[in-house]
Automatic annotation (TrEMBL), chain A:
Species assigned in the record: Kitasatospora indigofera
Coiled-coil zones: none
Gene Ontology MF terms: metal ion binding; transferase activity
Record's catalysed reaction(s): L-threonyl-[protein] + FAD = FMN-L-threonyl-[protein] + AMP + H(+)
E.C. number: 2.7.1.180
Name this protein carries in UniProt: FAD:protein FMN transferase
Keyword set, alphabetical order: FAD, Flavoprotein, Magnesium, Metal-binding, Transferase
Enzyme class, UniProt record, top EC level: transferase
Pfam families in the cross-refs: ApbE (PF02424)
UniProtKB/TrEMBL annotation, chain B:
Domain FMN-binding: 84-161
A single GO cellular-component term on record: membrane
Keywords: Signal
GO molecular function: FMN binding
Region (Disordered): 30-73
Keyword ATP-binding: no
Pfam families, per database record: FMN_bind
InterPro entries reported for this sequence: FMN-bd
Residues of the signal peptide: 1-26
Record field: compositional bias (Gly residues): 35-54
UniProt xrefs under Gene3D superfamilies: 3.90.1010.20
Protein name: FMN-binding domain-containing protein
The keyword Transmembrane helix appears for this protein: no
Length: 283, 164
């Protein structure tokens, strides 16, 4: 399938909640990259300001489809797919592809090779691209003056401003949470087997990583936080948590295969206050 | 078992704190030394005059008014340096121009804050599951759902609830 993103009609942006009153949050859900991106802009305002934020939202959505076209390993005609089949050269591709591969190499070095742009031996930089795409959408919304917003790319979240309360999905109980974190300017990325089974490969053994049910990293920028979460998930609980503990600016929450949880020393400081334990579900 | 988790994470916190402070202390100490040497170089007890020396200026040498003659013991307190764990301030004792003692006079009081945080956060983290209804969340982080999986996801419920 080959859609020209620039030809997407403006109406393809379904504003879930239209401007019903002054200062209502602007919300939108967009199917793209095989998942759904959810947007919330709290300070979309009204009138001309709101129109500006809505225009930025359309540009952000456009940008996501364009990134998907170039970078998706699932589209046969994407540049990533063509490069993987050696039908083109990096020099002939979008310059952003070379930049993305450079970022992937950086993350691979930062994680001692536990992140790779070639999982299973085939070019697939998705582990970086989705978080980066969220950051790109955020950047475009900010150019319209939005300062209090969140964008989720299928469950990986970048918040700007705040405070934002981010629920961390329970890995085996649909609809329940395993924790809630709160704060400003958070990036929250979760890797796990709940939605798509064991799909993260251990780059060293080539087999799916199974040492964790889920691993959540909280950092600042989502592209890196998300890629790091993929790497730390592949590392497994012991190595993954030790790695996160040693890295400044990142905290981790791990759910083990038996349901027990482990976390880094700074994680409790991120836990959202205001939820008394008595209101939590019993086992 | 839970205690073991908390204890081990507290130990790790302690280690991280120590490791993290190390470079900051190293960075702070030369600043304190710089001001100390400056004041001994001019041979007066006046202001050290370095950029970081405002606090050090107040902390004039406690012993020995003149020069840096060997055997003159004095203490110089550096200005507080901000680290990611809070302010750190170092007092240096010199015998002439030789450092005989370095001690922290101010250091981050994180233990108490950690205790406060842990008193509410750890019981929550130890809960097996939390009810999303009462958690008052804005957005959900979880394993990446497929386009189809979104339909039954908590995020979809949040998106739709807001649209009503």
């Amino acid at each position: 399938m080959s859609v020209s993103p620039s030809a997407l009609p403006a109406s393809s942006v379904r504003v879930v909640r239209p401007a019903a009153g002054p200062g209502d949050p602007l919300r939108h859900a967009e199917h793209v990259m095989g998942t759904v991106f959810s947007f919330t802009v709290r300070d979309a305002g009204r009138g001309a300001r709101r129109a500006g934020v809505e225009a930025a939202l359309r540009r952000a959505v456009d940008r996501l489809h364009r990134i998907d076209q170039v970078f998706s390993p699932y589209w046969r005609d994407s540049q990533v797919s063509r490069l993987a089949r050696a039908e083109t050269t990096l020099a002939d591709c979008d310059p952003e592809l070379a930049e993305v591969l450079e970022r992937c190499r950086e993350v691979a070095a930062e994680t001692d090779g536990w992140f790779t742009a070639h999982p299973g031996g085939r070019l697939d930089p998705s582990g970086w691209v989705k978080g980066w795409a969220v950051e790109e959408a955020v950047r475009l919304l900010r150019t319209a003056g939005a300062t209090d917003l969140s964008v989720s790319g299928g469950g990986d979240v970048q918040c700007v401003g705040g405070p934002w309360r981010v629920g961390i999905a329970h890995p085996t109980r649909p609809g329940a949470l395993t924790a809630v974190v709160a704060g400003h300017d958070l990036a929250v990325a979760t890797s796990g087997t709940a939605e798509r089974g064991p799909h993260i490969l251990d780059p060293h053994s080539g087999r799916p990583a199974t040492g964790l049910r889920s691993l959540t990293l909280v950092g600042r920028g989502l592209a890196r936080t998300d890629a790091w979460a993929t790497a730390a998930f592949a590392m497994g609980p012991r190595r993954g948590l030790a790695w996160a503990e040693a890295r400044p600016g990142v905290e981790a929450l791990a759910v083990l295969p038996d349901g027990r949880k482990r976390w880094t020393s700074g994680f409790p400081a991120l836990v959202a206050p205001g939820l008394p334990p008595g209101r939590a579900l019993r086992d | 078992m839970r205690r073991a988790v908390v204890a081990s994470s507290a130990t790790v916190a302690g280690i991280v704190l120590l490791l993290s402070l190390k470079p900051h202390e190293a960075a702070t100490t030369p600043a304190a030394l710089g001001t100390g040497t400056g004041s001994s170089g001019t041979g007066s007890s006046g202001s050290p005059g370095t950029g970081a020396g405002t606090d050090a200026g107040a902390a004039s040498p406690s012993a020995g008014t003149g020069g840096a003659a060997s055997g003159t013991v004095r203490t110089v307190t550096g200005s507080a340096a901000n680290t990611r764990f809070g302010p750190v301030q170092v007092k240096v004792t010199l015998d002439g121009t030789k450092i005989t003692k370095v001690e922290a006079v101010e250091y981050p009081t994180h233990d108490r804050r950690d205790q406060e945080i842990n008193s509410y956060a750890v019981p929550l983290l130890n809960q097996e599951a939390l009810d999303a209804q009462s958690a008052d969340i804005d957005v959900v982080s979880g394993a990446t759902f497929t386009s189809q999986g979104y339909a039954t996801s908590l995020q979809s419920a949040l998106d739709q609830a807001a649209g009503r």
